[in-house]
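Q: What would this complex look like in 3D?
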Amino acid sequence: MTARLDAQFAFLNEADRLKSVLRATTLVDGSRPENSGEHSWHLALYALVLADQAEPGVDINRVVRMLLIHDLVEIDVGDVPIHSANGQAHASVETQAAEAKAADRIFGILPQDLRDILRALWEEFEAAETPDARFAKSLDRVQPVMANLMSGGGTWTTYNVTFDQLEARVGVKIAKGTPRLWDWVKAKARPWFG
Amino acid sequence: MTARLDAQFAFLNEADRLKSVLRATTLVDGSRPENSGEHSWHLALYALVLADQAEPGVDINRVVRMLLIHDLVEIDVGDVPIHSANGQAHASVETQAAEAKAADRIFGILPQDLRDILRALWEEFEAAETPDARFAKSLDRVQPVMANLMSGGGTWTTYNVTFDQLEARVGVKIAKGTPRLWDWVKAKARPWFG
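A: Here is my prediction, written as structure tokens for the whole assembly.
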């Protein structure tokens, strides 16, 4: 029992470092960059509040769990902004390999049963094939759009993003998980691009 | 549909402000104060990882939901450190009234169905009477103990806390939700107090 709790808390203490991983996106008030810990909280809250936008059959509790752990690999790899490297950075073989290695190390701190469960959940999120993972991915794409809109441009300004690029890099993925939500977000975002 | 989504996103944008509410506790590495948004994420992760410490019948999905929303009232009221005002601050009538008013305003931004659900969940957490709420409260007390231990003292130093005070203010509440977990935490914390 004690060895198990030691491993559980070693993981929880290590996870704390996600609060020091900075994203390209700022807070809604533009005051500072958002970190990946608070981003993960905000996304889980998105899932609770926007559950009625999910396709039939989506299990919101699983979506919340995915969102709580989806960025843990960034403790080793850092955040890869979606609009960086002309929108291609996250798809690179190097990034994928580094994230898999990070998952080995970080989930590997846990007792084996928990390691297997959370690792599988992270892989499901990354693959974005199940309805739960597609909805989780959609929310992960919607939240920075809102932060950019509220803060006056954000990463769209930083990376000179066009509306067509937003639609290709972000809109397509949002629509995959929750088509009606992209219609609403698009209507809000379109005017910003002039 | 559009009016509903407008209200849902108005709430999610307002919730972003929780990332700017600072707590007395620091990050595990002691580098800066923790904010209540990332704290809420960390607690939800605690619930996933420490689910096997909950009493039989506890619904971890409900615990996670409670923890995601439990601090939203701090957007208006701020964080009330557990060891401040000689350990009495949070029990004051003034604090309770201010938090209820904050809940009216913040949950009131939501469409009525979601407002009622999340408000009831927050009240259940605050009352700390159901098994789900007691477990959620326990985790909310455990996490700062770990942060203090990892960062070399933290709020125990700030507020000159004794081990007896820790046991009375924190230990009793942890043990109420998860007795075995307090035994483990106590064994880790005791030596710090000399």
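A: To summarize the key features: Chain A touches chain B through 46 residues (CB under 8 Å). The first helix of chain A runs from residue 2 to 15.
Q: Very helpful, thank you.
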